[in-house]
Amino acid sequence: MLCFAHAGGCASFFRSWQALLSSVTVHAVQYPGREDRISDPAAASLIELADTVAEEILHGEQEYDLFFGHSMGSYVALEVAHRLQAAGRGVPAIVVSSAAAPALRPPVPYEKTADVLEYLTQFEPLSPEIRQEPELLDIILDRVKSDLRLVSNYREYTGKEIESEVFGIVGAEDIPEIRDGLSGWAAHTSSNLRAHTVPGNHFYLRAEPPTTLIRAALSRALLATQD
Fold this sequence. Notes:
By secondary structure, the protein is an alpha/beta fold.
């Protein structure tokens, strides 16, 4: 499986998942501008980011049966999967986590720091320790703003439909716009949308990664390739 992180997130967000999913090989996309790619310039658009990931997959040897996208990562995963499909490659099933369908996503601020901080409090407020470190806070906010800009300006989703199943997961305490918007992912698959509500908020997966649902999604994806 290949994992796509949320706005401001890094590949290391999924580091612990390999031990939890011992029968699965877990990979994660490292977005530019963070961790070992700290010096790489940020993507100009979500489409550019998806193009880069898709090209690496198409020119590589690794095949993926499942994409897991959390929040912003769900939109990147959809775009990458659509590119693989257009290229005639096998299309992974997608788990879209804590994300309303693209056309139903709530407004996303990315310019003013005060607006971004208020927006973040809906999902996962920054800790007091981070807020008390101005340099660290600036680095984190720059990364978050850059990613939120990609989401806010993402308009190319119309008509994007993949052949594989889409599995939706949302926390029962996530904001209403995201909970209500999960069903809209049905417009992006010619197969099935299988939606699930789990305990927790937007970042439910910090406390309880959805390993059971991931295994079930992988099993269904593998069965589909054998039909």
